[in-house]
Amino acid sequence: MSRRLALLLCFALPGCGLHPLYAGGASAPVAVSLASIKVDPIPERGGWLVRNALVDRLGSEQGNAPAPRYRLRVELDDSITGFGIRGDRAATRERRALRARYRLVTVDRGETVLDATAVADAGIDVVSSPYATVAAEDSALERLSGEIADQIVARLGLYATRAGAAPAP
Q1: CB 3.0 to 4.6 Å from 68: which of 38, 83, 101, 118, for a disulfide?
Q2: What are phi and psi of 26, to 5 degrees?
Q3: How far apart are CA 125 and CA 22, in angstroms?
């Protein structure tokens, strides 16, 4: 009975409507569209980390990248909030939140075609060593920058798919 069910599911799955976003590898329409996005500079260390992660994931500054058709403008809000207050008013935990508002703008017309937000946060233990706490905060920023970049690229890929992968300028 279970073999029949498994066989039936194998034939039913292709009809479910799911398909790979990046089917076709680097020459796929979505990958080509993502490579045509130029990422504007983002201020401060967190911005540098997010921009580098975006450029790596988009492939937009490789030698074979097409001419930019879009610009990605990102504004970051980085905050650290202390909580878990002890009796001596010292925080025992921190929450680092990174929020990115990003806009995809056409190069030729300057029209905003996508305006969205990505958010990521991480908990940090505050220990007796200030150096260890600062190192944990920096490590959290690096992880959050990658998470923000992943969210942005996923949303850009979805936009490219819905817009026909490579809309005419």
Answers
A1: 38
A2: -70, -20
A3: 38
